[in-house]
Amino acid sequence: MTDAEFEKLDAKARRFLQRGRNIPFKLSGRLVECRDCGRAHPEYYMLKRNLWLQAVPTGRGCLCLECLAKRLGRPLVAEDFGDPPCDWLTGQPVKLAKRFG
Ligand SMILES: [Zn+2]
Fold this sequence. Notes:
This protein is mostly helical. The chain has 2 domains: 1-31, no CATH class; 42-101, no CATH class. The chain is built from 5 helices and no strands. It has helices spanning 3-18, 25-31, 49-55, 65-72, 96-100. The longest helix has 16 residues, at 3-18. It is elongated. The mean pLDDT is 85. The structure holds zinc ion. Residues 34, 36-37, 39, 63-64, 66-67 line the site of zinc ion.
């Protein structure tokens, strides 16, 4: 998904919120899918901000871990993630450190 496509979807979602309405499930799902491969992914991680902006200069949207590594042009390592790497849905540290450490 290009930056323009993402911003168009985001603007649409904001219009729902401005009218006091919920964002339709299908639309909210599009906003959190991987921008490169379109995969709906279960892992929500916190990457170090400067690294995220290197991969996604606008800082907007989501990437699956595989597409993130492709954009960075190298494998991910534990030090790339926040401390601790966090699963935003559960608030629990995920196994990212073990996977990439
Ligand atoms: Zn992807």
